[in-house]
Give the backbone structure.
Amino acid sequence: MLYSVRMRAAQGSSHEQGGKHISGAERLVSGELLTSVAAAMLRRALSHSRGTADFINLTVETVPAEAVREVTCLPIITVNTPDMIAGRESAQAMLIRAGVAPVAAAAGISALVGLPVSLRGAMVVNAQTGLRLDTQAERGVRVSRMDIADEQEYLHWLNRLGYGNNQIHLREAVVLAAKVMSAPGMVAELCWSDDPEYTAGYVATPAAYTRFTQLKPYGSPIGGRIFFIQENTDLKQLVDYLQYQPILVKVPAAGGA
Ligand code: WAQ
Ligand code: MG
Ligand code: MG
Ligand code: MG
């Protein structure tokens, strides 16, 4: 038996009542870790760079171990971009190489750039047309029920690659991207953080998780994610997978990236 632990925190009022999204997190852990993971999530919600939360929803649900599927995380590549403009151009080119139509890649980037406030989840976008397919407005689709299979092994792997201490954004994003890219019909993902001090973002494709050191201006509290999907994808099935399929992520076999 595993536990899905999900947290979402907002300021002003709940998300449903229009509060400002502060922080969210999702883990999939054993019973021994449950209370410490839940406590860590509360701490995170209460001391976030986006502001102090005064609404916190913490949800714990059991997940049968038989339902869990394993997925391997993607090789990580870092592209040092001199500024945000160059970063976005490189990210756009990578999306196009992954099979996103140029018009859709441009529309996706514009949609993120033009967000009035941060989304809590991801926009699902048609990789051919660039049209948004989910109808969840500022909520977006929130991926959950995923975690790292073996944390020590994961941290060692990241360390060997030079992603050492305190790279919590990267650690979590690599796990999320592994689940996202394993979903049926997924073409690519584009992300940048809503944490004002965190300018890096990434494009995930079936081949790699490519980080760009600058995708948004320092200080901006607007971030988000876009999942570009194939035109004929069953949206309900995809969203179900992203939200409910329990996934544990393992590092590539020795010798891999
Ligand atoms: N499911 C779907 N969308 C999510 C989720 C989720 N579980 N978590 C966050 N998002 C969306 C949401 O719109 C947020 O506003 C946005 O992503 C950013 O979330 O390699 O820290 O947690 O150095 O701020 C990427 C680069 C960091 C890491 C991403 O995202 C690296 C990051 P944040
Ligand atoms: Mg978050
Ligand atoms: Mg996050
Ligand atoms: Mg954030």
Remarks:
- The chain has two domains: 2-67, 70-250.
